[in-house]
Amino acid sequence: MLFFKSKRICNGINVESPWVILGIAWVIIFSLYTLLQTIPPLLPILNKNLDISHFQGGILYAAPLLMIVLFSYLLGHWSDRLGVFRSVKFGVTLAVIFAILRTISRAYYQLLFFNLIFGFGFAWCYPNLPKIVKNSTFTPLPSFAE
Predict the structure, then answer these.
(1) Is residue 32 within 8 Å of 122, Cβ to Cβ?
(2) What was the pLDDT predicted at 17?
(3) Helix 108-125 vs helix 84-102: angle between axes, to the nearest 10 degrees?
(4) Which pLDDT score, from 0 to 100, does residue 137 have?
(5) How many Cβ atoms from other residues are within 10 Å of residue 82's Cβ?
(6) What long-range pairs does 129-136 form, CB within 8 A, spacing at least 24?
(7) 46-77: burial string, b at 16+ Cβ within 10 Å, e else
(8) Per-residue pLDDT, 27
(9) H-type helices in the chain, by residue range?
(10) Rounded distance, CA 118 to CA 31, Å?
(11) How many C-beta atoms surround the C-beta of residue 109 within 10 A?
């Protein structure tokens, strides 16, 4: 049994329910991975319209992954100090804004910059969503140590 200090109800749904929190975390990570996977199907179009090589197309796809690898640990550590929910909100906002800005970019380096910042926003969310789910479902066991 989970013990919460208060029950927050929004439109008849208990938003502190572990299932609701797990569902929201799943939707967030699914949406971010969907945005991450939009570049490879567009590479033939980008190669033709932006006149870029296959190598540059690979860099476009690898740039957000590189940001995730480089910054997830550091941003996960910072989010413990800033607050996990606040970090996820900031990361999702940053990732969505720059994913939308990717659609209006007209040059290769502009698209690369938007992809890098999208990856940085993704890196804010990636280590924190499991923390949110763990904190909402974990009930500490009683200690028998004296």
Answers:
(1) yes
(2) 76
(3) 160
(4) 72
(5) 13
(6) 129/25, 129/28, 129/29, 129/88, 130/25, 131/76, 131/79, 131/84, 132/21, 132/25, 132/84, 132/85, 132/88, 133/18, 133/21, 133/22, 133/25, 135/84, 136/16, 136/18, 136/21, 136/22
(7) beeebebeeebbeebbebbeebbeebbeebbe
(8) 93
(9) 18-36, 39-49, 54-82, 84-102, 108-125, 128-137
(10) 13
(11) 10
Phi, psi of 13, deg, nearest 5: -110, 130
d(CA 24, CA 21): 5
What is the spatial distance between Cα 114 and Cα 101, in angstroms, rounded to a whole number? 7
Select from 40, 70, 41, 38 the least CA-distant residue to 58.
40
Which of helix, strand or coil describes residue 137? helix
Q: Block means of pLDDT (10 residues each) for the chain, length 146 residues?
A: 46 67 90 93 91 93 95 90 91 95 93 96 92 76 60
* Cβ atoms within 10 Å, residue 103: 9
What CA–CA distance (Å, rounded) separates 105 from 92?
20
